[in-house]
Amino acid sequence: MAGLLTRIKAFLRGPKGRQMTNKAREMAKDPRNRERARRAADKLRRRR
Prior knowledge:
Blueprint: H1 2-13, H2 15-28, H3 31-47
């Protein structure tokens, strides 16, 4: 499992990972997207 996390960290530090991170931050600023994320998280919590 540590190998997978290392690979993910390396990806996020690269140019494509930074680009995806910035895009996610921009999308998180939108109130509609925040509400969608909150509902999805609530749904996941109820299933357990």
